[in-house]
Amino acid sequence: MATLQEVAVAAGVSPATASRALSTPASVSIERRHRVLEAAERLGYRPNRSAQDLASGRSRHIGLVVPDLANPYFATVAKGVQAQARGAHRSVLVADTDEDVRAEREILGDLQPNVGGLLLCSPRLPEDEVRDAATRGPLVIVNREVAGLASVSFDVASGVRAALEHLKALGHTRVAYVGGPASSWSDARRRAALGDVSGVEIVDIGGHRPIHQGGVAAADLIVAAGATAVLAYNDLVALGVMSRLTARGLDVPGDISVVGFDDIPAASYASPALTTVALPLTRAGHEATTLLDGLDTAAAPPTVRLAVELVVRDSTGPAARP
Amino acid sequence: MATLQEVAVAAGVSPATASRALSTPASVSIERRHRVLEAAERLGYRPNRSAQDLASGRSRHIGLVVPDLANPYFATVAKGVQAQARGAHRSVLVADTDEDVRAEREILGDLQPNVGGLLLCSPRLPEDEVRDAATRGPLVIVNREVAGLASVSFDVASGVRAALEHLKALGHTRVAYVGGPASSWSDARRRAALGDVSGVEIVDIGGHRPIHQGGVAAADLIVAAGATAVLAYNDLVALGVMSRLTARGLDVPGDISVVGFDDIPAASYASPALTTVALPLTRAGHEATTLLDGLDTAAAPPTVRLAVELVVRDSTGPAARP
DNA sequence: GTGAAAGCGCTAACAC
DNA sequence: GTGTTAGCGCTTTCAC
Lengths: 322, 322
Known about the structure:
- Chain A is an alpha/beta fold.
- Chain A has 13 helices and twelve strands.
- The radius of gyration of chain A is 25 Å and the shape is elongated.
- The structure holds a DNA duplex.
């Protein structure tokens, strides 16, 4: 493994110049710069990140903390982060908390001192702890907003409204809401917008696990509540609702319409294909990474709220005549 | 941020002793060890990974290269890797190649010099390049085998046989195989086992993209070929086949039985729920990480071939009478 | 614009 | 067991 030292010797310059040629090309004469670049290329020079980080006092790694990597939602965000980070020559350290707040704390303490910035997808960590973490280094929150901190989130309220208007236009007047984890920020956002559309009565089915099984569990409650349509916390839940409904012999959307949230790939594969509020997850990963890069220079911590879009597929239809 | 130096001073020992107390506790007297641990705890000491790596000459990071993080297959492997790595106090650097071999090469060159070991999920990279990478540092291949290199893969042949036997027992005699990417190692493994079950005629539908859309594209060919059952390259493809079949008005499993590979979460959500060959993906992540740790000490590069299991659900049934 | 020199925080001989 | 002493490979003042 060639070192910068060796590159410098090969190029006939000092290590300092070699370093500058690579990191601040503008500060080196064009001729020497070329010599250094050529030598680096020829020797197959690869910077030693540990050395760079140690010497400069800042890490080029980005830490990404997610509750569950196997969840397509977070996996997609992670993919976006990854892509953007690579463009900025930074690497991504991912940590999966397995939905466990205790593990999350531990990971935070472990990870944060060793990364240049942290991307936190943490729907459940108490706000003061998030704020605390932000004092320890650059931090961007994803899918949540905390006053005074940089974040990337989605305009879920308008998504909820769009879904409700869509159902209303189809003649639905009694819509069940299947909630997610009670402590989740984004569940609260969804709930807050539930009353925004007049003429649609909302039946709260309560909080459920944000996975397929949660929807399965909720389906019977929906039927019992006499709703003709459902808005679910996310697609996984919506898919769960749909499969249980179908298993009970009910038709979607003939008997009950179903709307999800997120637009994970499975939403379009399902049959019927799921009508859902699409969140630009990859884009969120991009934005969050970009935000992180500009965080020191930014005056106030920026908050990006990404627009969402209702994707109408086949799981919604006219309300059944009573 | 407290340094080891400061911890050492606070504990009244030399930096070396402080270092040993933390990394090789056995080599320090019990009393001093306690003093160091206590001081570290009290000062909130966090080791600087860059410094550790630079000084010791080896990185504690694990590099994980996957073709697509948003693919539930790789996301699940990644989760397994992550969990195991954290147990060993190592962090995971993930890189997503976006299914692009050129990007993969670049990532390899970038990543490998800066990690202590590499986990490669790379179905398509030419074998000699994989072998080449292995000379540059500890490397474990996942879901593929290359002679002489450490790897974790699945016993897909027995999975194919189990699927075929299952179909045969249901009376199917003409089974279509929807292949994956032609250059993929695991597609070749599946194909190699296709002839192992006598009494079942295999119709090769050719290679398709290993995603939902690939299955959609293949479905019509299956019908045209007159097969009563399909074995697909993976679940995504199987799901695609199923949705196209259903859209054409065919019944699964009434008219055609479908079997997938992998057992991703969506397989159990689908309706009908997909019969599939389950691969222990999380386990593969664990094993690969464990293998990486023991690689230097191992005599011969270990090859782990994980057992698979046919999960019979609702997408397979008796062959339709001709 | 360039080089010399001083570390960044830690580990690993090497002596004791 | 323990301390002393060198660095690991790089960035970054500081002079020139």
